[in-house]
Structure formats: C-alpha cells, structure tokens
C-alpha cells in the first residue's frame, strides 16, 4: 500500500474551491485521494460554507496529509476562492476539480504524461461522462481536439469542461492569468481565453471524469446571465481572431446563438460562410472538420433562436443549402456510424 505523505515537491496541485458542497464533496475528494498519481497536493478553499462542508474537509484532511484546507471568513465567490488557492499551489501543473464531480483513477497520470510530452501545450482537458444528481449516466462526450480545433471552438464556448483542466502555472510563462471575479458566471471561459494568449490548448479523447449535471450548479441557476457573459467573451476573443468584415457579418449569428434574437428572415449563414472561407485559407488541413463544425454551429444558433424544425429546414434549404452536406456528415459523425476514415476528428 502506498504510504500517504505530503510530497516535498508535488508533481500536480489539485485545486478545489467549495461552497456548501456537502452532498457530493466526499466522493469528489476521495476520487482525487485515490488517484494512481500519488505525488500530488490537494488545495481546498472553503468559501465560508454554512453546511457540513468544514466537518467533511476536516475528516478527510485527517486521513490524507496531502489535503491542505483554507477556510475563508466570508463568502467571496468561486473566482476569488480559486485565486486564493492558486496563490498556495507548489506544483508546476495545476488540475481543477469541482466538488460535485468524480475523477477517474488515472485522470491526473494521463494528463501529466501528456503535458510532459508536449511542453508547448499550456492546458489540456479530457473527455467526460455526464451523470445526473443521482449519479445515473446521461451521455458520454468524447472531445479529442487539437490546438486548431480548440482555438476555433473558443470563439463560441469553452471547448473543454472546466473540471477537466490541467494547466501549467510556473516557468517562463509566468505570470499567468487568474480567474476574473467580475464574471460571476462563465469564469472558466474567460480564464481559458486569456490562457490562449500564452500557449495552445488541447482536448484528450480519454474519458477521465464524471461530470454532474444538476439544477443547483452555478450554470444551471444562471443560464441567462451565462449566455450574456459568454457573448461578451466571444466577441472580445473574435476581435483578435477574425477580420473586421467577418466579425461584422457574424452579428446576426451572434444575436441568435447567444441571445435567441432571430426572425424567420434572419440570415445567419452569410456571416458564417464568410468566416468559413477565411478559416479554410488559414487551416486547409482541417477542411472537413471546419465545414462540419460551422454547419453544426449554424444549427445550434437556429435552435437557440427558438426555430421550429420546419423553420430550420427552410432556413437551410433557402439560405444555407451549401451547408447541408456538411451538416449531414456531422450528424452521422455524432451518431458514430461513420468509418474512421470519414470522421473529421479521427486524427485529433
């Protein structure tokens, strides 16, 4: 049996900010305590919880000296709590964990091996299995994504789930950004966008985390504000990523995708078509992936705009007919019925 001690030089610092996390906290922390990679520290910041969270943390810290608990005297929100934890980490790699998710035993070892083998990558995430409040499997989401794909997807949403993040926090790239407390939601998105200014981000195809979806999560309670803040982040990011003519053409798409603002005559395809043309010149090796993802993001915008199935079909048939082949291939890809040779993400 492994002798549990606090390593003098941990290889990974696991960061967890928690507020009233009693229902799932012990299972989440034990999934980190049981990692195959043992040379870690677990930095937990209790954001002035009012439930039994302090008792759970005290019990687990007594079992495992790798757990370091800091308790804040007043609630300051997840961004400031995570920043407090970042000031305490000692390892060159930081892994994020949430108090309601379950990490698989090999999660940290797999991510660390990847980061060691790819010193140019600043952050990697993993694929996930979604579970509900009771732990029942909902769906598995595999996210093998290279640096190009992650940068492209970051125009519209975080390309990776926050509790799968592992990123570098020492070395020549210091000082790296911290979480922005001005964002009560979408902090992970805003944080990742600023990390992209320091290096590349990738997603691993390995499913290494059970991600819990329930109504009491921050995202679940603040969906409207989440969309508003995500739109701000997206537009700021695209200012550096895309030409002005493309950005201007994307306004109808952005309004539909983030705000649900769309009418039957709204043409979201013109702007996306212009963006795709620019992207294909920049990333010719990703042609199939870019075509299919652009078609899928068009479909998502129409759905978020409240369009019926009939309205969606008419929009594609009249305004976006050239997107239909790519959309059909993407649908088959999602269902995993395409052979590997025809999958646009088979080499990622």
| Count of individual beta strands | 9
Segments where pLDDT lies below 50 for 5+ residues?
none
Number of helices: 14
| Main sheet attributes: strand count, strand direction, barrel closure | 9 strands, mixed
Structural features, described:
Helices cover 43% and strands 16% of the residues. It contains 14 helices and 9 strands. It has helices at residues 22-33, 53-63, 78-86, 107-117, 147-153, 187-195, 218-221, 223-241, 244-249, 251-259, 269-282, 287-304, 309-318, 324-334; strands spanning 12-18, 40-46, 67-71, 93-96, 102-103, 121-131, 137-141, 166-168, 200-212. Strands 1, 2, 3, 4, 5, 6, 7, 8 and 9 form a 9-stranded mixed beta sheet that branches. 41% of the residues are buried. The mean pLDDT is 92.
Helices and strands in order, then pairings?
Elements: E1 12-18, H1 22-33, E2 40-46, H2 53-63, E3 67-71, H3 78-86, E4 93-96, E5 102-103, H4 107-117, E6 121-131, E7 137-141, H5 147-153, E8 166-168, H6 187-195, E9 200-212, H7 218-221, H8 223-241, H9 244-249, H10 251-259, H11 269-282, H12 287-304, H13 309-318, H14 324-334
Helix pairs in contact: 1-2, 10-12, 11-12, 12-14
